[in-house]
Design a protein that fits this description.
The chain is an alpha/beta fold and 265 residues long. It has one domain (8-194, 231-264): Rossmann fold (3-Layer(aba) Sandwich). Helix content is 48%, strand content 15%. It is built from eight helices and seven strands. The protein has helices spanning 17-28, 40-52, 67-81, 105-133, 159-179, 197-209, 213-223, 233-244, and strands at 8-12, 32-37, 56-61, 86-89, 141-146, 184-191, 255-258. It has a seven-stranded parallel β-sheet with strand order 3-2-1-4-5-6-7, with helices on both faces. The two termini are 31 Å apart. The structure holds nicotinamide-adenine-dinucleotide. Nicotinamide-adenine-dinucleotide binds at residues 12-13, 15-19, 37-39, 62-65, 90-93, 114, 146, 148, 191, 193-194, 196-199.
Length: 265
Amino acid sequence: MNSVEGKIALVSGGARGLGGMSARKLAEAGAKVVITDIREEEAAETLDVIAKAGGTAKFIRHDVAIEEEWAAAVKFAVDEFGGLDIVVNNAGVASAARPLEELSLDSWRRLMSINLDGVFLGIKHAIPPIRERAGRWPGGGSIINISSIMGFIGGARSAAYCASKGGVRLLTKAAALELAPAKIRVNSVHPGFIDTPLLRGGVEAADKRMEGGGQHFIDGIVARHPIGRLGQEEDIANAVRFLASDDSAFMTGTEVVVDGGYLAQ
Ligand SMILES: NC(=O)c1ccc[n+]([C@@H]2O[C@H](COP(=O)([O-])OP(=O)(O)OC[C@H]3O[C@@H](n4cnc5c(N)ncnc54)[C@H](O)[C@@H]3O)[C@@H](O)[C@H]2O)c1
């Protein structure tokens, strides 16, 4: 089930967190994986975990906000593994909570350049090689964009992040319509709050700024998830692997929400 045997995948921001776990799950399910990231040390650790589990993965340093680096990353996948079938546009950053009137245009643009431009560029550069091999698979090629529950709902003091993730949601639909004739599926994944280094950064900040500290911050977040816990990296990576596989062959332009019930309320 959810096999990606013989396929070639690229995971942006694949050094750690949701990208790291997605790379591991894809490799475990038979894909050859290119991990791209700006964090070389953590990428090396993830490569090591994959190799020890018998999987195949390679790393290229890549900033998703830079178009030439996207061209180089896609070329790397084609040169090293012979093509491309799956792209997981996962790299993303959170912004420090900040009132709108104090948000500088520079920090707005910096966040957009990673969270939204990075996904646009990932789709754009992946199309030619994915299209070339899409006919081989019952489910065609697959592009998976990591959005967020914040692509559906707003959050005070998180304007740039919410705007970027809402943008990813509709960019996904537009791309899905355009690429369906080429047998390339495009879907978005919307995690609730997941226990990753990104979230732990928020806990550390809360430890300094909030009464009750990081534990209070976490308890407040858990309380908003009816399932009663934080998400784990596997919860998201399993959804990514499903969307990458032919088991999701009839799914395109849709949102896969993995949030412990957060948005159902
Ligand atoms: N953790 C959560 O609760 C959560 C919830 C919803 C959505 N998300 C989204 O999931 C994705 C992964 O988040 P995570 O929690 O694993 O974060 P993380 O910080 O643990 O991992 C993100 C990875 O992206 C990389 N990255 C950042 N900027 C980059 C750039 N310019 N170019 C290339 N790589 C870059 C980082 O180096 C890091 O390895 C993000 O898009 C995030 O917005 C996370």
